[in-house]
Amino acid sequence: MFQYVVKRLLILIPVFFGITIIIFTLIHIMPGDPYSTMMDPGLSAADKEQMLEAIGYYDPLPVQYVRWLSRAFAGDLGYSTHYLQPVTTVIGEKLGNTLLLSVSVLILSVLLAVPLGVISAVRQYSALDYFATILAFIGISIPSFFLALGVLKIFAFDLGWFPISGLRTIGANYTGLRALLDLAHHAVLPILVLTVIQMASLMRYTRSSMLEAIQMDYTRTARAKGLSEHTVIYKHALRNSMISVTTLITISLGNLLSGAVLTETVFGWPGMGTLMYQAIGNRDYSLVTACALLLTVFILLSNLLADILYAVVDPRIRYQ
Amino acid sequence: MAEKKALHENSMWRISLIRLRRNKLAMFGLFFLLLLLAAALFGPLFTPFERDATNMSNIYQPPSAEHWLGTDEVGRDVFTRLLYGARVSLAVGFVATLFSLVIGMTLGSLAGFLGGVVDGVVMRIVDIFMCFPYFVIAIAAAAAFGPSMFNVMLITGILTWPQFARIVRGEVITLKQREFIEASRATGLGTAYTIFRHIIPNVFGVIAVYATLGIANGILSEAGLSYLGLGVKAPMPSWGNMLAAAQSLRSLRMHWWLWMPPGALVFLTILSINFLGDGLRDALDPKLKR
């Protein structure tokens, strides 16, 4: 097991450097001078050049990359030229909001999708199976932001049941339970949209993984030795099919975070997605780089976690 | 001609076709896509309005007998623009998938066929790309390269090739051990010839399925990027940049005919592609048929 984890970690090293190099290069070919808004407009062109020179703006890209990476390892992701604050401070505030959204969506979608997928498989070709399949196809096919726009128009504008955007009612200054309820009220629509999207693929996957397990020899053996159908399905087949479902859930952690980008911007939810989109508009290089880096590293780690979990629940993997 | 005949004689393809025909959802998907393709190609020839003809005395009109889907903020006919937009969105889907296919198939078959160092390097690159949060990197890249139709195609292609590379590599590794490949190598035929003549045709079925789904991804990518103003630029209409009308809260609330039709079309197109892709997979791969 230990050997397996070490091997996985070693593979991650070149991947990590590749990722950082690509992200860094990409952000630095974006047009525009990010420091123009930070400098005193009264400065002469020569002084500006000198200042840019001093902070290493004209250094070759590889030099800048190494400098950026070594600082990043020390926890310094740069300085936001728009918010005039360290990037870590700016992100810190928003990361919580995105996590709040993602974690709720993850829990909800697992609670809904896994049972639905299992029932769908057990009662293949039943009315419920068809319903779930159609629902899953819709969830897989609808662009998240279009669903978000539709939901926003119907439930926030036309019916007026939910607030249009933001995190809490501005100027209300609620405290305690009222504040919590207010936050929940704002979160309903974004969570609804992301859950529908997230559920779809999870449900399909659970269904096919369960169908596969039901056909296996060990399931037939379990039946043959006279176990009740309930025990066969829920003890033998389900437990085995959950191996790959666990992996998919872990892998989807990262996708969930990045998938929230567009949905967040539609609902004006002040999370990483909205932050990054605005940062691109503001040419806030360090902020964009940091957001992209953070999300990518998160995916990298969730993939690693998935690999390890897979090996924990299925010992066959360790010896391949 | 000879190829066509071979297709008829080849019972595997015939059985697949029969199986596909029986799948109602896949047939619905195929029908909708063909209809859409026809509308995109020939529709604009029949509309009485021009793509960019503005009419400031006739703005924000709701749907009527004259303007089937109303008019936009400068009085252009929404239905007409939707038809032209279909051309752009479909083109992005096709070309992006083509880019993705070319890169993915080349690198994937090289990695699988040659193995060793080449395989190691290609698979690490695949790992890198698989880790990227798709939309985050797409947005950053679109901002870096500037908004344009070609860039959307390119970015989508570059971000999605690893899935093709992975599939092709896997298939090649299994195929490599088969006798006919060994025979081809023993005859002294070159690597490139063996790959293109003997290996690629054998992985065609799997590739077809994923390419179909890839087109859906291209259309989705265009819609998302153009919605954010990072994709196809006005005045050229695309479903994505028509959806951007909903960025204005006033239009989102009052002018549903500006953004709902393009959004619904993106949804229906992707749904049809998924139906068809799923049907193709079941039809081509009897192992998966349950």
What does this structure look like?
The complex is a heterodimer of chains A (320) and B (290). Chain A is 76% helix and 1% strand. With 320 residues, chain A is mainly α. Chain A has 2 domains: 2-73, no CATH class; 90-313, MetI-like (MetI-like fold). A two-stranded antiparallel ribbon of chain A has the order 1-2. Chain B is an all-alpha fold and 290 residues long. Helix content of chain B is 76%, strand content 0%. The mean pLDDT of chain B is 84. The A-B interface holds A 11, 14-15, 18-19, 22-23, 26-27, 29-31, 124, 137-138, 140-143, 145-146, 149-150, 152-153, 157, 164, 211, 215, 254-255, 257-259, 261-262, 265, 276-277, 280, 288, 291-292, 295-296, 299-300, 303 and B 25, 124-125, 127-128, 130-137, 139-141, 143-146, 216, 220, 223-224, 227-228, 243, 246, 249, 252-253, 256, 259-260, 263, 266-267, 270-271, 274-275, 290.
How does the SSE layout of this entry go?
The complex is a heterodimer of chains A (320) and B (290).
Chain A: H1 2-28, H2 45-54, H3 61-73, E1 79-80, E2 85-86, H4 87-122, H5 127-141, H6 144-158, H7 176-215, H8 217-224, H9 229-267, H10 272-281, H11 285-313
Antiparallel strand pairs in A: 1-2
Chain B: H1 2-9, H2 11-22, H3 24-46, H4 78-114, H5 116-131, H6 134-145, H7 149-176, H8 179-186, H9 191-227, H10 239-243, H11 249-254, H12 256-284
Helix pairs in contact in B: 2-12, 3-4, 3-12, 4-5, 4-7, 4-9, 5-7, 6-7, 7-9, 8-9, 9-12
Mean pLDDT of chain B: 84
Helix content of chain A: over 70%
Number of domains of chain B: 1
What is the multimeric organization of the chains shown?
A: heterodimer
Rg of chain A, alpha carbons: 24 Å
Overall 3D form of chain B: elongated
Number of strands of chain B: 0
Distance between the termini of chain A: 12 Å
Shape category of chain A? globular
Sheet with the most strands, sense and barrel status of chain B: none
Number of helices of chain A: 11
**Annotation field: number of helices of chain B:** 12
The name CATH uses for the topology of chain B is MetI-like fold
Strand fraction of chain A: under 5%
Structural class of chain A: mainly alpha
Given helix and strand content, the structural type of chain B is mainly alpha
Spans of chain B with pLDDT under 50 lasting ≥5 residues?
A: none
CATH superfamily caption of the largest domain in chain A: MetI-like
The count of strands of chain A amounts to 2
